[in-house]
Amino acid sequence: MSMLEIKNFGKQFTIHHLDKTMQAVENINFSLEAGEFIGIVGKSGSGKSTILKSIYRTYLPDSGSLLYDSERFDKIDLSKATERQMLYLRKYEIGYVSQFLNVMPRTTSRQLVEKALLETGEPEWVARREAEKALTHFELDPKLWDTYPTTFSGGEKLRLNIAMATVKKPRLLLLDEPTASLDQQSKMKVREIIEKLKANGTNLVGIFHDIEFMESLCDKVFDMKTRQLITEAQAGVANEG
Ligand SMILES: Nc1ncnc2c1ncn2[C@@H]1O[C@H](COP(=O)(O)OP(=O)(O)OP(=O)(O)O)[C@@H](O)[C@H]1O
Asked: Where's the ABC transporter domain (predicted)?
């Protein structure tokens, strides 16, 4: 089966001070096959982040289903999974990366990556070894390993974010506009990182403002406007036409 199957997904928000509800997205259908990278495109406010946040369950989906093929729970509807199941999935199977780094204060980058592994029950020596590997792999300058990331540049924060999310080797990685505030050179670095993740078999769903950036990186593109999933080749033809 598919790694992730989104069926008739929709999400409303309640605007309490106006005593109103607004439909952020509706009738979303697409599937992510094993080993694929799907990019989501669409104009600002069309609901791209809402889809990713609902998969990660930062938001509770209110209609449709988000069927995920879990290693631990088999086929599980993320819209109905218990909090306990979601905690497990976030710890072991599903990662989320955005341009923002929300981390514990006074914790060094090395400790942050180690913590991600210690939480999964890895012994300290393994956490230390794997954290160093991840920080090296994502090219965070070793001078920064024992410093607090509050003063890091956008690119450094992002590389740390990716190291934290991927050190546990998630099967599904959600990328929520990670490159939004990066310069061209840093974007290229992120592109290389994503290529490495793909080559290692990580399944990805990502949002990028920069359509060029997504070109030849994603296998398929989901267009919020047409609500269609098209292959990279079809996207190229559509752009030319
Ligand atoms: N927590 C929330 N509470 C209320 N409304 C929200 C919330 N999150 C998102 N929305 C609204 O839902 C709609 C979709 O937002 P979303 O962030 O998913 O769009 P997007 O396509 O990712 O936009 P962008 O490209 O600008 O990031 C928007 O109208 C937004 O204002």
From this structure: 4-241
